[in-house]
């Protein structure tokens, strides 16, 4: 049985390094992964128990997350079928189906209240 989470909160910070320091020191999160490009945190994963929160620096990296500083990522087995279902229901697709360089196939949509949801095959799990 797969024990990796299915839902992952996504957060963007003006100063992701400071946010990581605060979250690890104040709340006890542990760094699982931190990806830095040109001195800027573009993606990080912090764990707490069996949960993972993904975060990065606002305004750099994936332009999708310039739409909103928060969101939810949902791991799905078949993003193409999931995307087709969302389109059929009239979802506002803000990122089309995309094959990412890290191996995930994903898309993103905005719900009627403006929240951004991202769906894909990337499924990080806490390290044992």
Number of strands: 8
Helix content: 10-25%
Which stretches are low in confidence, meaning pLDDT under 50 for 5 or more residues running?
none
Q: Proportion of β residues?
A: 35-45%
Q: CA-to-CA gap between the ends?
A: 15 Å
* Shape category: globular
Describe the 3D structure.
There is one protein chain. The chain is of the alpha+beta class and 128 residues long. It has two helices and eight strands, in the order βαββββαβββ. The chain has helices spanning 16-27, 79-88, and strands at residues 7-13, 30-37, 40-48, 51-57, 70-75, 92-99, 105-110, 116-120. The two termini are 15 Å apart. The mean pLDDT is 87.
Describe the structure in brief.
The protein is an alpha+beta fold and 128 residues long. It is built from two helices and eight strands; from the N terminus they run E-H-E-E-E-E-H-E-E-E.
Topology:
Blueprint: E1 7-13, H1 16-27, E2 30-37, E3 40-48, E4 51-57, E5 70-75, H2 79-88, E6 92-99, E7 105-110, E8 116-120
Parallel strand pairs: 1-4, 5-8
Antiparallel strand pairs: 1-5, 2-3, 3-4, 6-7, 7-8
Jot down its keywords:
128 residues; alpha+beta; eight-stranded mixed beta sheet; 2 helices; 8 strands; 44% strand; globular
